[in-house]
Amino acid sequence: xxxxxxxxLAILFLMxxxxxxxxxxxxxxxxxxxxxxxxNLSAPAPRxxxxxxxxxxxxxxxxxxxxxxxxFAADLRVDAPFQPWAKALYDERKTGMRSKxxxxxxxxxxxxxxxxxxxxxxxxxQTPEYIVIIYEAFGILWRQxxxxxxxxxxxxxxxxxxxxxxxxxxxxxxxDTKGFNGKIWLDLLGKPSTDALHVIERFHRTDFGHMDxxxxxxxxxxxxxxxxxxxxxxxxxxxxxxxxxxNENNRSLEHLPGDISR
Amino acid sequence: xxxxxxxxxxxxxxxxxxxxRLQAHHSFAxxxxxxxxxxITGTVTKVEWLNxxxxxxxxxxxxxxxxxxWAVEGAAPNGLYRQxxxxxxxxxxxxxxxxxxxxxxxTKLMNMGSATMGGRKLFSGTASQEN
Lengths: 262, 131
Description:
By secondary structure, chain A is α+β, with helices and mostly antiparallel strands.
């Protein structure tokens, strides 16, 4: 009996160790490690050769609600400064009874900035001229942030993720995004947005494993004044993205209430 | 037997993996009713290991022997993969007990809060996002 238990434990250990070697968990070479080999997430934030902060990595939102990753506005339990029509729409949506109309439920993009806080990880790739963010949720979306000094394009087509430019303010990357399609639910509760949406994100990598993002929502058609929330994301040091094609079997839609024709 | 025990222990260990947090693409409250917890035990007739949620179909017999097939909505396959699940972790013919919540629309659909097989818990977590 003792031998059986010992064998079980040995096999369990080997299976556990082998799972940590599965392809999504291959340890990257550039992550600082403590003496016992663990990722040192409190090490200083890395920098590019020219001294610019390097925000690269696989990140995951740390805002939680009942233990699960939640919306970027989860901490905003006090209402946003809604315009009256936006407040009325939000009050209907937040009951969940129009949840079929949430683009995310239809496997459509969650939009900026909600996609940063979606349950799911995203990979930031940085060069001196641009940043690309690849989002696993929910269909492999990509976003470009241009760092080459260009202005926001006035003629950019309206999209879910908008058109983004970034500038460094010391160690903080300030990203302006405009050119939205007005269809985005800013969070799962259904805070509305319009085509006037302007999002300002301030990315600050505080150490190797943590980044704060201050997000300002400036949408005068839906809100009486800009409002700001803080999102925390943490590095997933030994993690790789996986394909996630949301629309391959979206059975939820037939059970969710709402009218997607409006 | 020992292999079965180890396999189940493995899943219990992996359920604690913080990187295996589950993904959801829709509101919980829109689809399921938290005030209506429900438990079924039955035989798996079909497994859909697909995005955005896995589905188990479970045949449940009532006291009179009449069989009803329930659809059980689980988490996203990537989150489960990272927790150690594979598409054959639960197979057609396995007997499972699922605890969760009923769908609001009254169909034979429930959310998978947790699942047990052979008396041991396989999985816990919500399949969709709280409001």
